[in-house]
Design a protein that fits this description.
Four Helix Bundle (Hemerythrin (Met), subunit A); mainly alpha; single chain; elongated; 5 helices
Length: 155
């Protein structure tokens, strides 16, 4: 949770396990970096899955200009949609996290919302890859709630 000052005991020393504001900001920005890496990996995976980049012919396609991509399999289509959806949501998440950081907003809802978003996105990726439609929408909604928590803490 974000605090304006470290929790302390009567002697003025920080309590064991107490987080400072700087640690919380680092956590928030770490989530942005982790999400950026995950987004990049999903985009790469979707491209390789579509081109079948693990095969010799697929490597040629993946390293070429991709004019003649093979028809997407259902799994390749889900991988592509997962990557694109994650990229779209990452843009919103990064914007909210960076605004919170730059503005110095010290609301516990920002970090909690970011954590909810992050963990729900990891679950969303797995659920989307597995092709579980209604659960996918429910998990996406949880991530949206995390973004809403962040946004409402900024207004």
């Amino acid at each position: 949770m974000i605090r304006t000052e470290p929790a302390s005991k009567a002697n003025g020393q920080p309590e064991a396990g107490a987080q400072t504001q700087e640690e919380d900001v680092t956590q928030l920005l770490s989530l942005v970096v982790y999400m950026a890496a995950i987004t990049w990996l999903l985009l790469l995976a979707a491209s390789l899955i579509r081109a079948k980049g693990w095969t010799p012919q697929g490597m040629k396609v993946a390293m070429g200009n991709r004019d003649n991509l093979p028809e997407a399999t259902p799994f390749a289509g889900r991988a592509d949609r997962t990557a694109k959806n994650t990229l779209e949501n990452f843009a919103l998440f990064a914007a909210l996290a960076l605004v919170a950081h730059v503005s110095g907003t010290q609301s516990p809802r920002v970090l909690l919302g970011a954590e909810i978003f992050f963990w729900s996105r990891l679950l969303f990726i797995a659920v989307y890859y597995l092709g579980i439609p209604y659960l996918r929408t429910a998990v996406w909604t949880v991530g949206f709630v995390g973004l809403a928590m962040m946004a409402l803490a900024l207004v």
